[in-house]
Design goal:
mainly beta; SH3 type barrels; 7-stranded antiparallel beta sheet; 7 strands; globular; SH3 domain-containing protein
């Protein structure tokens, strides 16, 4: 005796929508306020490290655009936002520390006044307009 399991049409629609979400590379995440209109980078994709910095104080990320940093942590800097009038100066980077391995590889913004640059590899001399994708949360 053979039994057939029938699934509701809503299940199939849900499965289709879930599949599209994984297959569609154009998902934008959650839109957030832009922090700047442009950024300084070492290359067009902002993929080269501009410098290495050391955190001089702790910073707790207020939202998903930012990263947490701990005093003494090493940070690889990939871009420097060009400040808007009345706004703060933020850089983007990734932390590295043996104590905070769970944060390694996560790129986000942090206040530049909380770090000291230790070594500049390549000046961030290329000014590139920011896009909404620079500030979306995924």
């Amino acid at each position: 005796m053979r039994h057939t399991v029938r699934m509701a049409p809503s299940f199939h629609i849900g499965l289709l929508l879930l599949s599209l979400g994984y297959l569609c590379p154009h998902t934008n995440g959650v839109p957030m306020e832009k922090l700047a209109k442009s950024k300084l980078c070492a290359d067009k994709e902002c993929s080269y490290t501009i410098s290495v910095a050391k955190a001089i104080d702790d910073f707790t990320a207020p939202d998903c655009r930012f990263i947490n940093i701990k005093k003494g942590q090493t940070i690889y800097v990939y871009s420097k936002l060009v400040p808007v009038e009345g706004g703060g100066v933020f850089w983007s980077g990734s932390v590295y520390s043996e104590r905070y391995v769970d944060q390694m590889g996560i790129i986000g913004y942090f206040p530049s006044n909380l770090v000291t640059e230790l070594q500049v590899y390549k000046e961030g001399a290329l000014e590139i307009p920011t896009t909404d994708m620079d500030f979306n949360c995924f």
